[in-house]
């Protein structure tokens, strides 16, 4: 049977198996090397308040949250797009 991808759809090195992570949208368990990680910064301050604090020179920390998505959810959300037919194997 032909192999679709040389990497098997995974990123990373020759480590062997990676730990499974849970998709943040559907809950599916996916290997960490195969899941798409999305890091987003969350603001703890309201937008109007942020502008006022920025004028005064206040340093505002914004924590980042890292979420993992399975391939099907990341395609559905638009984080990853399908390649053009010419670029596929």
Q: Explain this structure to me?
A:
The structure is a single chain. The chain is α+β, with helices and mostly antiparallel strands. The chain has 2 helices and 4 strands; from the N terminus they run E-E-E-H-E-H. The chain has a domain at 20-75: 2-Layer Sandwich (first zn-finger domain of poly(adp-ribose) polymerase-1). Helix content is 19%, strand content 20%.
Which topology of the domain at 20-75 does CATH recognise? first zn-finger domain of poly(adp-ribose) polymerase-1
The sequence of SSEs as H and E is EEEHEH
CATH superfamily of the domain at 20-75: Ribosomal protein S26
Indicate the CATH architecture of the domain at 20-75: 2-Layer Sandwich
Helix percent band: 10-25%
Question: Helix/strand-derived class?
Answer: alpha+beta
Which stretches are poorly predicted, pLDDT < 50 over at least 5 residues? none
Can you identify the CATH class of the domain at 20-75? Alpha Beta
Q: Please state the average pLDDT score.
A: 88
Question: What's the quick description here?
Answer:
Helix content is 19%, strand content 20%. It is an alpha+beta fold and 89 residues long.
List keywords for this structure.
single chain; 89 residues; alpha+beta; first zn-finger domain of poly(adp-ribose) polymerase-1; two-stranded antiparallel sheet; elongated
